[in-house]
Amino acid sequence: MALWDSGSMTMADQDRGARRFEQIVGNSAALRVVLEQAKRVAAADSTVLIQGETGTGKELIAHAIHIASPRSGHPFIKLNCAAIPFELLESELFGYERGAFTGAVSQNVGRFELADKGTLFLDEVGDIPLSLQPKLLRVLQEREFERLGSGRTHRVDVRVIAATHRNLERMVKCDQFRSDFYYRLSVFPITLPPLRERPEDIRALVEHYVHVFSRRIGKHIATIPEEFVNASRDYAWPGNIRELQNVIERAVILSDRETLPNLLRPVRPPSICNLPAREHFNETERIRMLDALETTGWVIGGPDGAAARMGLKRTTMIARMKRLAISRPPNASLDQFSSMDCQRKEINQA
Questions:
Q1: Superfamily name and number for 2-193
Q2: 148 burial class (0-12, 13-18, 19+ CB within 10 angstroms)?
Q3: CA 54 – CA 124 distance, rounded (Å)
Q4: 253 pLDDT above the threshold of 80
Q5: Percent of the chain, pLDDT > 70?
Q6: CA–CA separation, 264 vs 231, rounded Å?
Q7: What is the rounded distance in angstroms from the CA atom of residue 217 to the CA atom of residue 150?
Q8: How far apart are CA 166 and CA 150, in angstroms?
Q9: Model confidence over 140-178: pLDDT tens digits?
Q10: Where are the domains of the chain?
Q11: Residue 157 neighbours by CB under 8 Å, 6+ apart
């Protein structure tokens, strides 16, 4: 009970927060550590930095922390910093006044003002440009900012939860991320384990998503073959839970006679069975990438490209191809290699 004691939290708040954490599927030791950390920091007002590979559920944990916190009755505002062009990111965060720049025909309120009294979730915080980080540091420390085109200072009461799949400590050492901003973000760091480190959660996750997608698609799945569950436990899941969701959704769509088909190919062929864990994972990922690339005709980008099939961003896919020495055949599509600058930037930050 002491874990949830807070002078500003009612019993209803505590019950709602507990239910939110119960909705996170799994009971592995690695996941229990994460949930214990999340519960402890929820009642505080500290900045949280959630780290982990893509697809591990960082936004889900952030939202659970918000719901379990005293701010649960106020907005939970999200912003994916990697999805906004650098030149527009500042106006998205802080807003702007009419006439602040060409095209600013009216006043616009930024995400910090929208999140006042609540929580602002900054996803992919590692993509925030160096030039903008001092302004964000000021908001975190002083809780004040100015809209673009205005000299008026606005004060806000916002709790920030940030997330990234990047190694920010390494970026700091390489002068790609400000150290003062990093230390202000990582007051309470939480690292999410990849799905391959939670094999004991696989059955519960498979059953959960089969239920979700069968209801959504309008099918009745009566049988989940043990072969599928075992193959899922052995699979490396480089795209983590997001990839698992995609595989199960496809399996539900393709299911006949109320039985879930096994869409997973063997991932431990005899030639790599005796490799060390890291080499095994790299070789497994290489095999999967080649399979996805061949299936899509070596098209990486777009909704039907290899990156989407693996649950990855296009730039992440290119970086991993470089790391695993996967090169394009001479007759393959040029789509993914149209921007060498994009490749270099991703490789430098990887």
A1: P-loop containing nucleotide triphosphate hydrolases (3.40.50.300)
A2: middle
A3: 10
A4: yes
A5: 79
A6: 7
A7: 50
A8: 34
A9: 999 998 888 787 888 999 999 999 999 999 999 999 999
A10: 2-193, 194-264, 276-350
A11: 116, 117, 143
